[in-house]
Amino acid sequence: MIYKDVPLIPNSVVRHIDGLTYQIEDVRKSTSGYETSHQLANNIVNYTQLEDGTYPAGTKWCKPEDEFREYFTIVDLNTPDQK
């Protein structure tokens, strides 16, 4: 989980709860439902898969920020792997 007070910085590497790593591309406003409600939805996180899984490395994804924070953790590339 990534806490709400932790910034989502472009180019940061994150790990999904299922194990694969991804890179944050950007965080932007979502306009989903805007024409109906005239309000912006939550932010969307755009990210790229870094290794092959069900889909190949390089696959682009997006997810609402609150959901992204729930299912990902930030990878500290300066810390040796603890496996």
Give the secondary structure arrangement, pairings included.
Layout: E1 13-16, E2 21-30, H1 34-37, E3 41-49, E4 60-64, H2 65-71, E5 72-74
Antiparallel strand pairs: 1-2, 1-5, 2-3, 3-4
Describe this structure in words.
This protein has 83 residues and is mainly β. The protein has two helices and five strands; from the N terminus they run E-E-H-E-E-H-E. Helix content is 13%, strand content 37%. A five-stranded antiparallel beta sheet has the order 4-3-2-1-5. The two termini are 19 Å apart.
Which properties best describe this structure?
mainly beta, single chain, 37% strand, globular, 83 residues
Short description:
This protein is mainly β. The chain has two helices and five strands; from the N terminus they run ββαββαβ.
The chain-level structural class is mainly beta
Shape: globular
- Strand residues, percent: 35-45%
Ends apart, CA distance between termini: 19 Å
Count the E strands: 5
The number of helices is: 2
Stretches where pLDDT falls below 50 for ≥5 residues? none
Rg (CA only): 14 Å
| Major beta-sheet overview | 5 strands, antiparallel
Mean pLDDT: 93
Write down the secondary-structure element order.
EEHEEHE
Helix fraction, binned, reads 10-25%
> Widest sheet: strand order?
4-3-2-1-5
